[in-house]
Protein: Outer membrane protein OmpA
Amino acid sequence: MNSKYNRLFKASTREGNFWPAFTDILATILLVILLILITLMFTKQQQIEGKEKEVQEKEEIIDSLVGYERGMIEQLSKAFQQEGVDVEIDQESGSIKFDSDLLFDYDEAILKSQFKQQLQEIIPVYTSVLLNEENQDKVDSILIEGHTDSDGSYMYNLELSQARALSIVSYILSDDFGDFPHKDVLREKISAIGKSESHPILVDGKEDMDQSRRVELKFRLAMNEQMQGVLDDLNVEQE
Structure:
């Protein structure tokens, strides 16, 4: 009898030891899973914070670029006003647009005399702001862009728009134009670009042929690698 009870007691003791051991293993597994989840949540939070910081940095860079550009546009507007030069500046882009029909005869790239006089008034003031000692390092380039309407072939319009832009640059840098402050700096930064019919002016969704025939005077800001990277990212997102 005693041996029978001893066997039952030993069996129940072994069974009782099994369940606490299994519970410990299960608790350990749950603890590991919990730690993994906490680690994943922490990592995700860091990624979110890193993304938010990256977005904030990009916004600050964009704001600085916009601030530089707006500041220069404001300086240009004040300078033209003070000098009594009647010129309209696009307050968003800083571009100054000229009607090609007033600059050139039809299908020609020879400057009209009245436009030469207008350039004589505009360019010295324009360069005195953008190319002074304070701003010239911030300006990467000054562009003369020729634009046409869509009448005719693209290649013909490209050659015409390029010839017109080059005609303006050649005159500004010529001896006939005369000297003005920062002309030497302008020589290094100015470019003539023909755009053909690639950027038409649309009114109610249709091309305005008269407005599309134009020449634009504009500037581009100098950018460091970080600024250029942000702009490249924006261009990729827009595509």
About this structure: The domain at 61-238 is CATH 3.30.1330.60 (60s Ribosomal Protein L30; Chain: A;). The chain has a mean pLDDT of 82. The radius of gyration is 35 Å. DSSP finds seven helices and six strands in the chain.
